[in-house]
Write a structure and sequence with these properties.
With 257 residues, the protein is an alpha/beta fold. It is built from eleven helices and ten strands. Bound molecules: coenzyme A.
């Protein structure tokens, strides 16, 4: 499928979504956001997709907001865009599939904020990550000031945001922003995704939900919520198949039912 500035391709149960403005280092303009939304709509209706990988076309992941487009936008336009991106990024954060950002190159500003909405981030050795916004007299306002401190702690996030520090892949790994550094982020992402294809699809969704929602709750409520997520696996045919396959010493064949 080609929707202009975002493309998708299937590799079995994996969909690889590519941000596709390589000549502009995948700077995020209206078209790319619109096409990202359309791509998510399409992926969400396809029950055969089990894992979503997001990557940047060309040498960058994404350099963030399209600063040239931004020059032609007034304050009202910018606020409307922010609201749309807030909704879009939150949708990606809670997307009902495991999501992996394959950070193949530079990920700055809104590009890094997009990656922070994914469940797992893997990064190519040569990539650079950071939030340059304060250099431009703005803030990382599409989740950067909120998701980064929740991920790595307030103190480290403050330093990165307030100094607009550019991080190497190894520094990002050390801080816990990414979970893997590899020569090729897509190869590393694909390895993780292929492994997930062997898992119960309902279990993947429910495990994600348990982690994401549970972390927002007081521990007592979170533990109850975890049981609710477990129950959503308990009555599935896949759970029965998993036990049957174990006793028959064969690989389970999960249907996502
Ligand atoms: N918005 C719009 N266009 C951008 C862009 C952005 N954020 N970042 C890069 N581009 C465009 C450049 O204008 C250039 O297009 P052109 O050839 O039509 O002039 C093209 O992408 C390549 O960028 P270039 O700067 O030549 O590449 P580089 O490898 O020398 O530098 C960066 C790469 C990322 C260091 C540099 O482009 C940069 O600092 N970009 C701004 C990043 C930023 O501040 N993002 C945060 C936004 S809040």
């Amino acid at each position: 499928m080609a929707v202009n500035h975002v493309t998708t391709r299937r590799e079995g149960g994996i969909t690889i979504l590519t941000l596709n403005r390589p000549d502009k280092l995948n700077a995020l303009n209206k078209d790319i956001f619109d096409d990202l939304k359309s791509a998510l709509d399409m992926i969400q209706t396809d029950a055969s997709v089990r894992v979503l990988v997001i990557i940047g076309g060309g040498k960058a992941f994404s350099v963030g907001a399209d600063l040239k487009e931004r020059q032609g936008m007034n304050e009202k336009d910018i606020l409307l865009r922010f609201e749309a991106v807030r909704v879009l990024y939150q949708r990606l954060e809670y997307f009902p599939l495991p999501t992996i950002a394959a950070i193949n190159g530079t990920a700055l500003g809104g590009g890094l904020e997009l990656a922070l909405c994914c469940d797992i981030r893997v990064v190519s050795q040569a990539a650079t990550l950071g939030f340059p916004e304060v250099e431009l007299a703005i803030i990382p306002g599409n989740g950067g000031t909120q998701r980064l401190p929740r991920l790595i702690g307030v103190s480290k996030a403050m330093e990165l945001i307030l100094t607009a520090k550019r991080l190497s892949a190894d520094e990002a790994l050390g801080l816990g922003i990414v979970s893997h550094v590899a020569p090729d982020a897509l190869v590393a992402a694909r390895t993780l995704a292929v492994r997930m294809l062997d898992m119960g699809p309902i279990a993947l969704k429910q495990a994600k939900l348990a982690v994401k929602k549970g972390i927002e709750l007081p521990i007592g409520d979170a533990l109850k919520f975890e049981v609710d997520c477990y129950k959503n696996c308990l009555y599935s045919k896949d759970r029965t198949e998993g036990l049957k396959a174990f006793s028959e010493k064969r690989r389970p064949e999960y249907q996502g039912e």
